[in-house]
Amino acid sequence: MEVAAGAGVSMAPRGTSAAHPFLYEINTWPWLDRLSGEIGRRLDLGSVPDEQWDAIAALGFDAVWLMGVWERSPAGVAMALADDGLVAGFEAALGDYESSDVVGSPYCIRAYEVDPRLGGRAGLGAARAALGKRGLGLILDFVPNHVAPDHPWTTTHPERFVQGTADDLRGDAASFVEVAGRVLANGRDPYFPAWPDVVQLDAFSPSLRSAVVDTLCRIADQCDGVRCDMAMLMMNDVFARTWGDRVGAAPADDYWAHVIPAVRRTHPTFRFIAEAYWDSEWALHKQGFDFCYDKRLYDRLVQRDAGQVHSHLLANVGYQEKLVRFLENHDEPRAAAVLDPAREKAVAVATLTQTGARLVHDGQIEGRRVRLPVFLGRFPAEPADSDLSAFYHSLLATLQDTTFRTGTWRLCARSGWPGNDSVDNLVAWCWDGDRRWLVVVNLSPGTATGRVGVPWDDLRGVSCRLVDPTNDVVFDRAGADLCDGLYVELGPWHWHLFHIESAQEEQ
Fold first, then answer.
1. CA angle 46, 152, 86 (to 5 degrees)
2. pLDDT of 256-312, one tens digit each?
3. 233 CB-near residues (< 8 Å, 6+ apart)
4. Total-model pTM
5. Cα separation of 369 and 377, whole Å?
6. Which of 399, 463, 476 is nearest to 433 (CA)?
7. Nearest to 131 by CA among 218, 50, 217
8. Coil, helix or strand for 385?
9. Contacts of 383 (CB under 8 A, 6+ apart)
10. Which of 60, 81, 268, 339 lies in disulfide reach of 343, CB 3.0 to 4.6 Å?
């Protein structure tokens, strides 16, 4: 029996208010360049054809993250072009690289104004209206840790920056820079050398905190949420550890605990998403973030450790519901470049069927392999992988069921028998909502067998039909089998994504 992908799913309302949203990241500048080439005329955010927004909406996303819309720094462009290591990376990504391809880093921001070359504020407003018409929210960037050296604050409000001295500049020119007669620290995190193209904001400065609230309120007038770059760097404990005596004593309230409530006083539904590492996710949740990156799950899935994946998913469900699960973003290698197609499909199912927010990166669906340096405004020409694209379309069509946005997720127990070690390569969870779903994934290159139990005792005594629209398979099983432990045998890197239909549902 064949079941069309996505057939019969119950559709959920979309937007950033979804409990478990699906987010689509677009690298805005090269995306517009690619569309312009396809259409044969220069586009900006205000002139993107309706069919482009229609195509994104049809995939079932709840919000679009337009990465890199803010005004970039000419000073940062000059530094990038003078950096031999960066230029070598540009040449590796673009076979026909030219210096004009360097448009600047979206994280070296001169002003939180939409770049005129991308359509300015009016163009962004038109894009937001187009997304809203289709029920999609809009996410933009906020970079709390640093700004470009030619940002206006460096001359009008130097007290908002970590200060240096002439001796600092002479002794460590890689970590300090002179701006308008003052020595300012370059941006950094505590574990790596400073970034030479940005200057460090002072998280403990009352003037900065007030200005950040004003800036975020202006941003919140233009979108539905922000993804905050390296958000943990501004937490009081991390900032104090990074800068020590140079910044003095920490304020009584933490940076985000001050900033987020202040923004929400005027924009109560505004969403905050944190790029977060170093086990800082829980602390950032407590300080007001709606979602934080789940880099540990990504690492464990890519490193092929099913046991650690299972252990990771044992964490408190309330915590997991506030994580962002991803297989790609602009900071990670392209999935198709590091995983063979069979493995990528299995890992994608394991990632995108989790609780919390789920992030898909533009180009991931087509199997693009080149990770573009963020400085560049043009993608290389790459053929699409038609088989991988068909898989993602089938998976995303299935995940448009309302249960994956509003339902309840739960990890499932799996068990084996003496001599069966392959069960350790299985991971399994279920969703309960408008419909019921069971997901089992084999995260190994060999066949895996075991038993997987679901927590639905009301299925005992009834017949169940298990329908997997992503693999076009159907099985009939007794409900007691599911409760006591459904026998599962999965080939290398394969999965079941079952909708559970009980006899009562069919009457």
1. 70
2. 999 999 999 999 999 999 999 999 999 999 999 999 999 999 999 998 789 999 999
3. 144, 145, 189, 203, 239, 242
4. 0.94
5. 17
6. 399
7. 50
8. coil
9. none
10. 339
